[in-house]
From TrEMBL:
Its EC number is 2.7.11.1. The lineage of its organism: Eukaryota, Metazoa, Chordata, Craniata, Vertebrata. This is non-specific serine/threonine protein kinase. Residues 186-217 are annotated as: Disordered. It catalyses: L-seryl-[protein] + ATP = O-phospho-L-seryl-[protein] + ADP + H(+); L-threonyl-[protein] + ATP = O-phospho-L-threonyl-[protein] + ADP + H(+). Keywords: ATP-binding, Kinase, Nucleotide-binding, Serine/threonine-protein kinase, Transferase. One of its GO terms (cellular component) is cytoplasm. GO terms for molecular function: ATP binding; tau-protein kinase activity. SUPFAM superfamilies: Protein kinase-like (PK-like) (SSF56112).
Length: 217
């Protein structure tokens, strides 16, 4: 598997999650490296630690390239076997999700075997994303190629923006201030300041009480 016809070469992500082939700086297969990182992530979720540790870059590289890690005793055999598929000792690793999804641990409690999610095809290009890409300097001709499933930097930018677009697109509406006609020609004096309205019960509560008669003044 490659990107736009070429293997990947960029080192990205945290070193503890990095696949072995990235350490020597060689070109690598993207999905296979992602599956390795998935294995490290699953190991951490199950054990609260990472399978490969090192005090520095050299030690970590040596640990990862050895492929040796400890599986805690409290993990089941099913999950242990699944981790071995994600983090195998041999350099020939699984290259896509179809290879790891049939694992018994993944399908526990399922009536049918879980299949990898397949995104439904769509030729509709989101207008909001188009405008954002135009603002970034992309040309319309290149953006239009995303509908042809051309996997390049334009498609990558489109997909990133498409996931980050606001769920509800809002538009600013300018509203002019409204003034009552009778208040435009005069201003209120201090004695005419508007008091907040209150109910009859609240008005009664605000009246002073005559302590001798027990009646309100």
């Amino acid at each position: 598997m490659s990107f736009n016809g070429h293997p990947l070469s960029t080192f990205c992500g945290r070193p503890v999650y990095t696949a072995p082939e990235l350490f020597p700086g060689q070109k690598y297969d993207g999905p296979a490296a992602d599956i390795w990182s998935l294995g490290v992530l699953l190991y951490r979720m199950l054990t609260n630690t990472v399978p490969f540790k090192g005090m520095n870059w050299g030690q970590l590289q040596k640990k990862v390239l050895s492929g040796e890690y400890i599986v805690p005793f409290y993990l089941s055999f099913k999950v242990e076997n699944f981790l071995k598929k994600l983090l195998p000792f041999n350099p020939r690793r699984e290259k896509n999700l179809k290879d790891i999804m049939p694992a018994p641990w993944v399908n526990m409690g399922q009536e049918e075997e879980i299949k990898p999610y397949v995104e439904s095809p769509s030729d509709v290009i989101d207008p909001w994303v188009i405008q954002e890409m135009l603002n970034l300097g992309f040309h319309w001709e290149n953006i239009e190629d995303t509908s042809k499933k051309t996997y390049n930097n334009v498609m990558a930018t489109y997909r990133i923006l498409n996931t980050e677009k606001p769920e509800v697109q809002c538009h600013a509406v300018q509203v002019k201030p409204f003034h009552l006609p009778e208040l435009q020609s005069r201003s209120l004096s201090p004695a005419q300041e508007v008091q907040p309205e209150c109910s009859g019960f609240q008005q009664a509560e605000q009246q002073p009480m005559d302590h001798e008669s027990g009646e309100k003044a």
